[in-house]
Amino acid sequence: MSFRSFKAGRLGASAACIAVSAFIFPALAVAQEAAPAANDQAIVVTGIRASLDASASLKRRSPVIVESISAEDIGKLPDVSIADSLARLPGVTAQRLEGRDQRLSIRGLGPDFGTTLLNGREQVTVGDNRGVEYDQYPSEFFKNVVVYKAANAALISAGVSGTVDLRMLRPLAQKDRIVAVQLRGQMNGMKALNPDSDNKGFRASAAYVDKFANDTFGIAIGLSATHAPSQNERYNAWGFPNEAAAGGALFLGGAKPYVQSNMLKRYGGVVTLEWAPSDNFHSTLDLLYSKFKETQHLRGIEFPIAPTWGSAATIQPGYTTTNGLVTDATLTNVHAVQRNDLNERTADNFSAGWNGVWTVAEDTHITLDASYSTAKRTDFLLETYTGTGYNTTGASDTIHISANPNGAFSIVPTLDYSNTGLFGITDPRGWGYNGTSAVVQAGFLNKPSFKDDLLALRAGVDGKFGGHSIFSGWEVGVNYSRRKKTSNFLSYFLCPKGAGTNCTVSSGTTTFAPVPSAAVIGTVALDYLGVPKMLALDPMYLYNNSLNAAYDNRPVSLVRDNSVTENVITGYAMLKIDGDVAGKKLTGSIGAQVVHTNQSSNGSISNFSNGAVSLYPATGGAKYTNVLPSLNLSLEMDPSMFVKFSASHTMVRARLDQIRVNQEFNIDPTRLGSTTPGMSVFSSTGGNPQLRPYHSTNIDLSLERYFRKGGYVSVAGYYKKLTQFVDPSNNFLYDFSSALSSLTPAQRAAVGTTLGTVNAPANTGHGDVKGVEGTLSLPFSLLTPKLDGFGFYGSLSYTDSTIYLASNPGQAITLPGLSDWVQNAALYYEKHGFQARVNYRFRSTFLAEVAGLSANPTYRQAKAEAIVDAQIGYEFQPGSKLYGLSVMLQAKNLTDRPFITYQNNDPRQLIDYQRYGRDYYLSVSYKF
């Protein structure tokens, strides 16, 4: 069966199952309700079924539309990571980075549109912006995770797409003392692609939970250590220009095939102290610390190919063109860049939160909450280059390129790229340029660092109303938060040691140096694309012994450092609803938030003119107030059926790199005489510290039917009207008269117009997002007792969006992270200690955020993905000498599905191809 037919079949089957169940299972639920009381005995379930039951119970009780996942046992979420588990929820998808699920999209809106909380508190991130990378949180530390798809007034920092709340265990809620340990081995199905890497790792965790002082004081402690390897056969194409030498057909512009090996090392710990000395006071202190270091070894070759893009190569006669694309060709005079790179990323994440609740009257409570979280991250991104000579002066290569069925091109060279007598340390293409003069760029080093701090204080009072009003209670409160994110960037040109200064060619910098034998650690193969082998060098040896560093003072590099500070005061008031309407129980809330924001940014403005770079400090910001009303209603039609409705207005702040004040101011002397507005000698590019948040008016409706002995079916629809959408490509005319002093008197006299263009993000977009979701959780014992232990959990979502930006009027854009169709399905069996599960996950094409030039984020169309995971395990039962011991075997990405992006809506124009292979895990757990 082909993938296309498999995909369509599964989508159709799931959709039909959900649709039919909406009609069949109400009758089934009624039949269950009518069962004799004698048969209504308590059924104790564990593992997968316990996790599903706990999640269904939370969803059922909540008057807000939510989804959730719950741990199967202490320290055991139902998947390898938090992101894996969240990606199985209805309307939630994950984008893989380095082979791991990291970036989440909720209801078609990417990570920039959601927020993540820890025990109800907003969190900082080790990422470049606001979106949380879930690798920073060890999954063993969480009891459950709740995804709010609708907002209420008491939910501070609710996102436009949704809000993810990571919830730690509460020790006083546990019945008995718990001591649990887990050890899990991990192996990637691909061999280690680099000689200085490994394809095997481990994960170890331990948890201790206990209560003291007559169950008034509880403590929970968790520790975790992870060494997680991954492998990546990685291919990147530069693009596809129309090649004049090939009759104007599309031609591969260039390509960078790599083999990449990663090792993520993460260590973490949590402590929760819970104290309830009386019925009038309850206190909880949560502490979390996580430290990780990820090391990436990358080795590959950059092949400049298309003559139109300056490769200087020659296309030989006899090339093949298929539907306007050259699919087979031989080229001579190719000068490639051989690369041995090393990326290291270290990060620390700490979070502390205290909560105290006082009962000051029978039904009145005062709540105080204080929290602080901080994250620090430093990157060391090292590139080293070797070639046959400086600036294409060495031996050239003859290569043969041919398109593969997967869209990537095979590249078969003639030169031996493992020959140290042929290749040396150099700038093979002469690409080095510091803004004013040529440099011998035999490597490059980026060293960005980020620090994110968030302090929050919250106070609230809640109480109940007397009488028989539909309004049962009330809550008012205020929250203050101060967040500051500082981004610093350093970069250096690297050149061979020897003569010269600042790596410049004009100063006599060495242009070519032999590869020291001590730097050679072997060879690696790029045979998946036709390169039999290349040099494997130790990039750190080259950096420490063979390369000089020259500070990168280009204007675009100097103007990157910045900080963004946000002081936010949120007042909220909410009426709680709990009463009867026409004999039906109605719960919910109505309320509003008033959010006052004072945002500011410190940075710089660079000026490049007359061959000199000037840097000036800059500050900017804005103050604004927003009112965010919300209404949530849950109508219990009968004891097993609920209709839930939500209407709200929410907002989410723009990306931090868009709010930065930094501007790269430029003077182009070639435009001195221009009189056309926008074509002035002056222009500027950068951020906008006056950006306002994205806003969304939301309508949500959900119909939920719960089965008496487990499981449920639900159908939900939603609509979001988006306003003040940030247009990252916005530009406008600006009068640069104040900048005339930057010019010489002669230049000022020649200026035709001072109206130049400023390129900066602005809130000039609008649009909408709408969709439907269907979910079915079905224990097969509801159908027949013979299938007791078997079950199904699945969902199907469809999302449609239309977004318009002022910079591109009349042309709708695609939302980053949006897949029109998302499907999740799981078949499981669990009984007598045995458990087995197979998961299928599908998402249609979407706009993915990937790392572009100099690690800057960029967007590309990603191909549809279908991923299958599986697990099987056994837990020894009471009476066994091994009671408390459980073993489990898990496998991820059994379909070995690569991550693929392409451009121009043409899958043949493939840009990224990343194959991660399959991952296997064997775990042993013991609970005392």
UniProtKB/TrEMBL annotation:
Leader sequence segment: 1-29
Keyword Membrane belongs to the record: yes
The UniProt record lists the keyword Membrane: yes
Principal subcellular localisation of the protein: membrane
Cited InterPro entries: Beta-barrel_TonB_sf, Plug_dom, Plug_dom_sf, TonB_rcpt_bac
Domain (TonB-dependent receptor plug): residue spans on this chain: 59-162
Pfam families hit by this protein: Plug (PF07715)
Single GO cellular component term: cell outer membrane
Protein keywords: Cell outer membrane, Membrane, Receptor, Signal
Database matches in PANTHER family: PLUG DOMAIN-CONTAINING PROTEIN (PTHR40980), TONB-DEPENDENT RECEPTOR-LIKE BETA-BARREL DOMAIN-CONTAINING PROTEIN (PTHR40980:SF3)
Name of the protein: Iron complex outermembrane receptor protein
Origin species: Novosphingobium sediminicola
Lineage of the organism: Bacteria, Pseudomonadati, Pseudomonadota, Alphaproteobacteria, Sphingomonadales
